[in-house]
Design goal:
0% strand, 12 helices, globular, mainly alpha
Length: 306
């Protein structure tokens, strides 16, 4: 599927799309099953929990609400938000685990069924869950620490100074969050393919990324851009369909079940198409770094010939 040598950016993208083309039944089957399940829960929770609760209007127009009303609305929204976030995270864990197995075997020219991928990934799911819970916590924590001084200064009364410090802190926080994202971006494939623990996989990712941070950042940013483009392309006809069949545009201020279902279908299509691509890019970046640093191409060639 890929040349067994250090890969260029185009070869990494082509390898990711090549996996989807050659093993589309397994790759799309996995991503479709995960997308349908997570989006169905998200749509139902959004429709039942958020759609008809008048208290949530304060979140749409915070200027018209008192601090107490805003805090009360936020408190009411937390359970529903927590459920959807948890379901999305669990879906991401399962999709990442199974698709990493599919890509790694596709590199050797081997097909993988959904059952084979599940049996191979299942022993690592608990560790992968810990990793994918820990990474967002680290990123949010770094951003929060960077912004906190400005918020404290503003709360103490020096609002103008506090806003300036908070703005500078937010920029520093975003830079720190981006650094962590790339530094540990190869931890998931390291955990899945090397059977390492959570902390060991973080260290492994940092070791592989060292000296190649900007290159990996560029490739990952390109993958994010592709996801954005696909979501935008799908979103344009979805908006038109919503206007035709429901009369509820993006600025109508109301959310009906028809809108939720149509948006959910669009999200399923987007996730089904792009999850194998993003997982493939990350897995191939991991393999490429090992080829460059550890001559993994020799081992892959030997394994592929067996």
């Amino acid at each position: 599927m890929i040349p067994l040598r250090p890969l260029g950016v185009g070869e990494i993208l082509e390898g990711s799309f090549g996996t989807l083309r050659r093993h589309w039944r397994t790759a799309l089957g996995i991503s479709l099953a995960v997308a349908v399940t997570t989006q169905a829960v998200t749509t139902v929770v959004t429709g039942v929990w958020f759609r008809d609760n008048p208290g949530f209007e304060y979140l749409d127009n915070p200027a018209s609400a008192s601090p107490g009303e805003t805090l009360d609305a936020i408190g009411q929204s937390l359970p529903g938000t927590g459920v959807t976030a948890l379901v999305s995270l669990l879906g991401s864990i399962i999709a990442t685990a199974l698709l990493t197995v599919v890509v790694s075997r596709a590199v050797l020219g081997r097909s993988t069924s959904v059952g084979d991928a599940w049996r191979s990934a299942r022993p690592q799911l608990l560790r992968l869950s810990g990793l994918l819970f820990l990474l967002p916590a680290l990123i949010v924590g770094v951003f929060g620490v960077a912004v906190a001084p400005g918020l404290l200064i503003s709360a103490a009364g020096a609002k103008a100074v506090g806003v300036g410090v908070a703005l500078f802190g937010s920029l520093a926080g975003m830079a720190g969050a981006a650094w962590l994202w790339i530094q540990f971006s190869l931890a998931a494939p390291a955990l899945m393919l090397e059977r390492q623990g959570v902390i060991a996989s973080l260290r492994r990712s940092a070791k592989l990324v060292r000296g190649s941070w900007w290159r990996i950042f560029g490739v990952q940013l390109l993958a994010v851009f592709l996801v954005f483009v696909v979501a935008t392309v799908i979103g344009i006809p979805v908006g038109i369909i919503e206007m035709i069949f429901t009369g509820e545009g993006a600025t109508s201020g109301t959310i009906g079940w028809n809108t939720l279902i149509i948006s959910g279908v669009a999200a399923v299509i987007s996730t089904t198409l792009m999850a194998p691509i993003t997982a493939g890019v990350t897995a191939l970046l991991y393999l490429d770094q090992r080829i460059r640093r550890e001559s993994l191409d020799v081992e892959l060639a030997q394994a592929a010939s067996k």
